[in-house]
Amino acid sequence: MEAFLLFLVIFLGLAMIIEFPLAYSLGIAASVTFVTHGFALNNLAGSAFSSLDNFDLLAMPFFVFAGYIMQYSRLADGLFKFINSFVGRFRASCGAVGIATCALFGTLTGSMVATVAAIGQIMFPEMKKKGYPGAYAGAIVANSGMLGQLIPPSSVGIIYAMATSLSISDVWLSTVGPAVIIVLCYSVYNYFVRRKVEEKCQEKFELVPYVKNIGVCTKNAIWSLLMPVIIFGGIYGGIFTPTEAGAVAAVYGAAYYFIKKKRDPNSVDGTFGQICTSAVGVVGSIMLIMAFATAAGRAMSFAGVSGAIKTFFETYLTAPWQFMLATVILFTICGMLVDGNVAILLFIPLLTPMLEFYGINPIYYAAVVLLTLEFGNVTPPFCVSLFMAAKLTNESFISIFKETIPFLIINYVVLIIVIAFPPISTFLVG
C-alpha cells in the first residue's frame, strides 16, 4: 500500500497545494512511483499509449466538438422558449422551465459548465423579473447544470465505459432514470417554494393562441431538438454505434453552425476556429488525464495495491450495502476534490473486479458512481458550477450554497432510492 500512499501524496500535493495541472500531476506522481519501486519505465509509456489506442474513444472528441458547436450556436434561447411555451402559464413555472432547459441543453453539450453558463445568462434575467432571489436562482441553475453529465451523451460516461469495458450506450442509459427523477424532484421543490410568491399568467387562456405559440417555438427550436433524436434514434435503433453517432453529431452541428452563420453572422458566437480551439483544449486535457491515470493504475497493479484493496474489502466489508456505502463516501469526496475523470480512472479499475464477489450489477454500479461524482461536483470546496452561478448573479458564494443545501438533500435522497431499487438504473438497458 505504500506505493498507493506515495502516489496520493505526490498527486494531491502537486494538484491541490502547488495547483499543478491535473494531467501533469498524475504523470509526475506515476513516474515517481515507477522509479522508486523499480518498475520498468517502458511499462509506463506502454500503458499510457494503450489507454488511448481505442477506437470507441473517438466518440468523446466528436461529442465534445458537437457540444461546443451547439453552445456557440446560441441554442439555449430557443430551447428555453420551447419549454416555456408549454408550461410558462403555470404558477412557479419559471424555475421549472430553467431546470428542464438545463436537462435538455445537457443532452446537446454534455457539459455542466457550458450548461450553467449558457442557461444562466438566459434564466437569471427572467427569474429576476419573476421576483426570484438571486441566490436561489443561482442554486437552481448550478444544481441543474449537472444534469448535462447525467443525460447522454456525456464524456464522463465514455471514460467510465472505457475503464470498465462496458458498452458506452449502456453506461449512458444507466443515469437517465435517476436524472428524470431529479428533474421532477427539483421541480416539485421549486413549486412548493414559489407557489405563493410567483403568480401564474394573468392572461386569459385561449387554446388557439396557446397552440400557435407552441408551434412557433417548436419551429424555432426544431434543429436543436432533432440532434438528440438523430443521435439516440441512430444508436438504439441499431443504425450506428456511439462512436459513429459522435461523428454524425459533429457533422450535423457544423452544418447547423455554418448555415445559421451564413443567414445571419450575428446569430452565432465566435468563429469556427475558436470552437475548434476550445474543443481541442478540452479533449487534449482529458486524453492526457486518461493516459497518465492509466499509467498510475499500472503502477498500483505492479505494487499489489489491487490485491490488497480486494482483500481488505472482502475481509472487513462483507455485505453489499457496506461496499456501496464505502463507494458513495469515496466518490463523494473525489467529486468534491478532483476531476471526475481522474477519480474514475484511478479507482474504478480497482473496485469493479469486486462487483462479482458482492453480486452487484456493473451497470447499476456505474449509475451509482456517476451520480455520486456529480453530487460531489456541486458540493464545496471546488464546486465550479456554484462559483460560476455566483459570478453570473453577482451573489456571494455562501448565499448560493445555503440555497443549494435543499437540492443536495434531494440529490442524496434520490441516490438512496437508486441504491435501494436497482431497476431505476437498469430498466432501459437491454
Description:
It is a single chain. The protein has 430 residues and is mainly alpha-helical. It has one domain. It contains 23 helices and no strands. The protein is globular, with a radius of gyration of 22 Å. The two termini are 39 Å apart.
Kindly list the characteristics that best describe this protein:
single chain, 430 residues, mainly alpha, 0% strand
Quick overview:
With 430 residues, this protein is an all-alpha fold. Helix content is 79%, strand content 0%. It starts with a helix and ends with a helix.
Sheet with the most strands?
none
Q: Report the structural category.
A: mainly alpha
Which parts are unreliable, with pLDDT below 50 for 5 consecutive residues or more?
none
Q: How helical, in percent, are the residues? A: over 70%
Oligomer: single chain
What is the chain-wise order of helices and strands?
HHHHHHHHHHHHHHHHHHHHHHH
Arithmetic mean pLDDT: 83
- How would you sum up the global shape? globular
> Number of folding domains?
1
Beta-strand percent range? under 5%
Distance between the termini: 39 Å
Q: How many distinct helices?
A: 23
Q: State the total count of DSSP E strands.
A: 0
Radius of gyration: 22 Å
Topology:
Layout: H1 2-17, H2 22-36, H3 41-52, H4 59-72, H5 75-87, H6 93-109, H7 112-129, H8 134-144, H9 147-150, H10 155-164, H11 168-174, H12 176-194, H13 207-236, H14 242-263, H15 272-302, H16 305-316, H17 320-337, H18 340-351, H19 355-358, H20 362-377, H21 384-393, H22 397-420, H23 423-426
Helix pairs in contact: 1-2, 2-15, 3-15, 4-14, 4-15, 5-6, 5-13, 6-7, 6-8, 6-12, 7-8, 7-21, 8-21, 8-22, 10-18, 12-22, 13-14, 15-18, 17-20, 20-22
